[in-house]
Amino acid sequence: MKIIKFDVIDSTNTYLKTNYDNFDNLTFVVANHQTNGKGRLGRTWIDEDDLLLSILVKENIERPTDYSLLIGAVLVKVLKKYSPKIKWPNDIIINDKKCIGILLEGVTKEKQECVIIGVGINVNTTVFPKDLLFKATSLKNESKEEINKESLLKSIINEFINEYNNYVNNKSDYLNIIRNNFYLDGKEISFLYNNKEEKGIVKGIDDMGNLIAKTDNQLLYLNSGEVTLNNIYKK
Ligand code: BTN
């Protein structure tokens, strides 16, 4: 296990995508600030006083998307005093606002070379842009306390290594942790499925980590790689 720290970098995910060949399994890259932080769907991830972390996984990556849920379970455990909820598959929600974004990337050549788990946690940022005002929060906003980022980082790394070892030995309880802290249960969602806009009610998560949604006429099992969810935040 290795931790690489930067004060400023373009993006911790980009760094690992470019340099994964030089590093071993379970390398952690952390930055104080990103100049070109990446969000999902080509968006930018802006930070102020936050935790920006990418984890390189090179072994046991036959099912890459499991890592979205595994890191989600890790974060729920570490941050349990904030009662975080998982918005399958990539966001962590506190009090109906997004506090953590997860960006899973990979490098595939003849085979899958690695998985990169990018985690952006709004930690001590207190002011958000107007368009995010009702959608985003931070740990400090929720607790009214300044958070020690170094000790938070340590807890996340320790818990990740612990949960990764459990996962490798088929002993991880991560799916139940997700089910027990699931933001979407019973909610109506809309999503793209086979390029068609669909609506459904969320019925749970199956044993492969797929989201189960009931449309008017069928149950669909949605794989996180194939689906984009819309309109789930409270207005
Ligand atoms: C999202 O859109 O919700 C995902 C945001 C992921 C942001 C993190 S910050 C650390 C890592 N490096 C990046 O460039 N992005 C991820």
Notes on the protein architecture:
The chain is of the alpha+beta class and 235 residues long. It is 23% helix and 33% strand. It is built from 5 helices and 12 strands. The protein has a 7-stranded mixed sheet with strand order 1-2-3-7-6-5-4, sandwiched between helices. A 5-stranded antiparallel sheet has the order 11-10-9-8-12. A hairpin with a 2-residue loop joins strand 5 and strand 6. Residues 11-13, 34, 37-40, 43, 45, 52-54, 90-91, 101-103, 118-120 line the site of biotin (BTN).
Distance from first to last alpha carbon: 42 Å
> What is the C-alpha radius of gyration, as a whole number of Å?
17 Å
Give the overall average pLDDT. Answer: 94
Bound ligands: biotin
Structural class: alpha+beta
Shape: globular
Secondary-structure element sequence? EHEEHEEEEHHHEEEEE
If strands are numbered along the chain, what order do they take across the biggest sheet?
1-2-3-7-6-5-4
Strand content: 25-35%
Q: What is the number of strand segments?
A: 12
Poorly predicted parts:
none
The largest β sheet comes out as: 7 strands, mixed
In which range does the helix fraction lie?
10-25%
* Continuous helix count: 5
Layout of strands and helices, then pairs:
Elements: E1 2-9, H1 12-19, E2 27-34, E3 51-57, H2 66-78, E4 85-87, E5 91-94, E6 97-108, E7 112-121, H3 139-143, H4 149-168, H5 174-180, E8 188-193, E9 196-205, E10 211-214, E11 219-222, E12 229-230
Parallel strand pairs: 1-2
Antiparallel strand pairs: 2-3, 3-7, 4-5, 5-6, 6-7, 8-9, 8-12, 9-10, 10-11
Helix pairs in contact: 2-4, 2-5
Residues 11-13, 34, 37-40, 43, 45, 52-54, 90-91, 101-103, 118-120 line the site of biotin (BTN).
